[in-house]
Design brief:
OB fold (Dihydrolipoamide Acetyltransferase, E2P); Dihydrolipoamide Transferase; Chloramphenicol Acetyltransferase; 3 domains; 9 helices
Length: 439
Amino acid sequence: MATNINMPRLGLTMTEGVIVKWLKAEGDQIEKGEEIVEVESDKSVVAYEAPESGTLLKILVKEGDACEIYKPMAILGEEDESLEGSNAKADATDELIEKPLEVTEAVKEAIVCGKAIAGFDGKRVLISPSAKRVAKENNVDISLISFPSGKKRIEKADVMSYLESNKVKTTPLAAKIAVEKGIDLASLSKGPGERIFSSDLETKQPIRERGENRFPVTGIRKIIAAKMKSSLDTAAHVSLTTEVDMSNVMEMKKRISDKVLAQYRVKLSINDIVVKCVAKALKEYPRINSVFRDVEIVEKEEINVGMAVALDEGLMVPVIRNADELGLGGIASKSKDLADRARQGKLLPDDYTGGTFTVSNLGMYEITHFTSIINQPESAILSVSKSVERAVVIDGQIMIRPMMNLTISFDHRPIDGSTAAIFLRRVKQLLEEPYELVV
C-alpha cells in the first residue's frame, strides 16, 4: 500500500527543509534504511533514510524546493501500484491549512467596498501550502488574488495566474538594459497593458552598482542571522576579559601529546585543554551553566560544551556532551570527530543540540581579542584568542611569556557580574595550573 515519505523534523527550531538532492529516482527499488534524499535543515545537510522498503512511486518536492516538516516529500509503495484511491497524497498541495488574515490596507478597502476577498470567510483565509509558499516567495498579498470561482480556497494555480497577469511587460532591449544596470522593472509605474521601453530607463538610476554580488539569505545563514539578532534582542549582554599565562599549558601539552596520540589517534590541541578547564569550572559554578526563563532560572546538571566550527556557509556549534566526565584524550577525540563531520555536512541533530555553554576560538586566525554573541538559550559563551609572547612583570622581574586573552560574554539576567568574574578567574587558574585537571 502506498505511503507518504514526509519531511522529517531534524531539529527543535526546524520548520521546513529544502531538498538538496534526490539520491533515488522514481521507479527505483528502495530498502529500509537506505539513504534516499539529502535534506538541508536550519543547521546542516542530512541524508534521510527510507522508513520502509518499497518502490519510489512519485517525487512530490523537487530539488531546491522547500517543504514544511511532516508534509509529504514523496510516495513509496509497491511496483506498478496505482495511486488512485490511495491514502498517500499524490500532490503535496492537497492539504488545507488555515491562517489569520492580515488586515492590510487592501483588505480594508475591499471590505469597505464590499468586494470579495480570496478565500475569506470573515475570519480566515484558506490557502493550500504550495500556494502559500509561492505567494511568500513572490511577496504577493493573498488578499489581492481574485476569488477562485466555485472554489473554497486559493490554489497554487491561482497565485501563478495572478503573477502572470501582473507581470511587468517590457521590450527585449529594455529587459537587457535593466539586467545590465540592475534596475528593478517593477519599480517603474506604467498603465495596464503598457510596455516598458528602453527610453523609460534612460533616467532611471540602477538599484545595484556594478561589481556587486548578491546572495539570497537562506539555509544556515538565514538561521544564524535570526538567532544572532534574537540573542541581542533577548539577553542582557555583558563581557569581561582576563589575561592568561599559557606557559604551563604549553609545557603540559608537549609532555602528554604523544600519549594522547598513541591512545586516541588524535592530536591534542590547546582548545581541548581550554574545554576541559571550562567543564571543570562549570561543575564548580553551575549558575554559569544555566538557562533563563521568564519565571525561573534552570541550572543544568549536564555539562555540554559547544565548540564553534567555521564553515563556508556559516557557523556550526556541535556539542561535546558530558565534557566534565571526559579526559583530555576523550575531549580531543570527540572534538575532532565533531569538527570533521561538521565540515562534511554529516552532523546529526543530536550533535548540535542540547549545549549548555559554548567556547569560540579564533586564535588560529591571529585574533588577539574578540567578543562573542551568546548562543541562545545558553547564558554564556567564552571567546578564546591567540597566545602572543610579550613582556610581563613576574615577581618584580620582566619576563617573556605566552599571554592569551579570554573574554566571557554572559546574560546579566541569570548571572551577576561577580559570578561571571569568579568563574572566569577559575578558568584562568586552571589554565595556569593545568595539572589540577588530574587531581
